[in-house]
Amino acid sequence: LGWRQGLFYHCIGEHAPTPLPFNVKAAGPGCYGARDVTYIKVAAGLCIIALVTDAMATLLTGIGLRTSDHRTKYKFYRIAVYVMILSLICVLLALVVYPVCFAAELNQGNRTVWEFGWAYGVGWGAAIFLFGAVVLLLCDKESEEIYYKERKVGGA
After folding, report:
1. Per-domain residue ranges for the chain?
2. pLDDT at residue number 152
3. Which of 129, 148, 149, 142 is CA-nearest to residue 78?
4. What's the pTM value of the predicted model, to 2 decimals?
């Protein structure tokens, strides 16, 4: 195929045209660690943080769903929303930082056509689903809160 760059690896195809972009040394076909560039490390770190915080938010939401006490459920939901928002901010920053910084170094790229791979689209999909999860969690929390308040007022 040629040459591909990701957040964690760059791969050189068997018949990659030389010289390789960004002054990468041609060590032969195969995959190697990502280039030592700050924006790639930052984007990769943000993606890892987003993954970990999203997993934590999912766990907190699950614990909140299993809890029958409304006050405890509200606390877990509220913390989960904050953690999901942090995850959303991290993934959005990574999705913006990478292409902006990549575009800034295109003059060293010695190629005329560049394309983002499928993983970039998956990143945007994750951001959309995270946003939806935050909205749905807020809506669910409010419906639980309304039900709880109605029960208290009606039962008093």
Report:
1. 1-36, 37-155
2. 63
3. 142
4. 0.82
